[in-house]
Amino acid sequence: MQGTLFNIKRTIFRKVRKETILKIYNNLVLPTFLYWSENWTLTAPQRRKIEAAEMKLLRPLAGYTLHDHKTNDYIHRELQITGILGKIDEYRQNWFQHLQRMP
After folding, report:
1. Residue 76: predicted pLDDT
2. Can you tell me the mean pLDDT for 60-81?
3. Given pLDDT bands bounded at 50, 70 and 90, which one contains residue 1?
């Protein structure tokens, strides 16, 4: 099963343009993942797992492997995207401000 997933991922990254994958990521993956994230209680291990899953997608998209030793921030800057954890924190801050404005 693992080999099949690797082959699918390798085929997708080879045949689809980087801009198309980023559009799918920004318009489909992120909104789906962030649905109702304002109310999540994330522990440190959960935050690490979320970031690892995100980087597993973004690192090959940027053209790097784990052995290239590029930091997550470097890859985010290169792809010009905000990380999932940053967006979760932003959503939670907006929700908190909304609650404070309520009577």
Report:
1. 94
2. 92
3. very low
CA nearest to 83, candidates 50, 39, 61? 50
| Domain count along the chain | 1
Q: Does some domain include residue 58? A: yes
d(CA 78, CA 74): 6
Beta carbons within 8 Å of 54's beta carbon, 6+ residues apart: 83, 84, 85
Instruction: Determine, yes or no, domain membership for 10.
Output: no
User: Is 93 a member of any domain?
Assistant: yes
For residue 3, being part of any structural domain is answered with: no
pLDDT of 38-49, one tens digit each? Answer: 888 899 999 999
Alpha-carbon gap, residue 43 to 17, rounded angstroms: 35
Q: Which tops the pLDDT comparison, 24 or 14?
A: 24
Interacting residues of 4 by C-beta distance below 8 A, sequence separation 6+: none
* Cβ atoms of 26 and 81 closer than 8 Å: yes
Reading the block at residue 2, the tokens are 């693992």
